[in-house]
From TrEMBL:
GO MF: acyltransferase activity, transferring groups other than amino-acyl groups
Domain N-acetyltransferase, residue spans: 1-147
PROSITE patterns associated with the record: GNAT (PS51186)
CDD domains, per database record: NAT_SF (cd04301)
Alphabetical list of Gene3D superfamilies matching this protein: 3.40.630.30
SUPFAM superfamilies: Acyl-CoA N-acyltransferases (Nat)
The organism's place on the tree of life at top rank: Bacteria
Species the sequence originates in: Oceanobacillus iheyensis (strain DSM 14371 / CIP 107618 / JCM 11309 / KCTC 3954 / HTE831)
InterPro entries assigned: Acyl_CoA_acyltransferase, GNAT_dom
Name of the protein in its database record: N-acetyltransferase domain-containing protein
A matching Pfam family: Acetyltransf_1
Length: 148
């Protein structure tokens, strides 16, 4: 397996993989084509976007990390907004391998930290902890719904 910045010609395949992963258990997202395309463009077409892909030995796209790079007083940070691995290989070490491969890419870009958020009730929570992510004791993720 190898990791590199997502190739432009793999954009549609990336969307298809994302949809397959997040339309299934445990998320069951219900994306329509227009919203999915707008969301993917929000993630991949900004000046600070960083989309990293993982490919198998046959060059098939099997995972992606979509996020943003921000400058902070401690150095550059990579905020992962979406991280997904093909359902066919989940639970087989591919996601952990992807993080190891990503470390080299991020180090080359002088990135000091990776940040992300997830729900505590999904398997991803334990997966991230297993891969050396820790819960910040003095931080919380907040949301405010804007009424209609």
């Amino acid at each position: 397996m190898k990791a590199c910045v997502l190739k432009a010609n793999d954009y549609e395949q990336m969307k298809k993989l994302f949809l397959d992963v997040f339309s299934s258990e445990p998320w069951f997202d219900k994306w329509d084509d227009m919203q999915l395309d707008l969301y993917m463009k929000d993630l991949t077409e900004n000046n600070n976007s960083l989309s990293i892909a993982m490919y198998d030995e046959t060059e098939e796209l099997i995972g992606c990390s979509l996020g943003y790079v921000f400058n902070w007083w401690e150095g550059r940070e990579y905020y992962i907004k979406e991280f997904f691995i093909s359902r066919n290989i989940q639970g087989q070490g591919a996601g952990s391998n992807f993080f190891e491969l990503m470390d080299d890419i991020l180090r080359d870009k002088d990135i000091k930290h990776i940040l992300l958020s997830t729900e505590k009730t999904v398997p991803a929570y334990r997966f991230y902890q297993k891969n050396k992510f820790s819960v910040l004791d003095d931080s919380v993720f907040l949301v405010k719904k804007i009424s209609e």
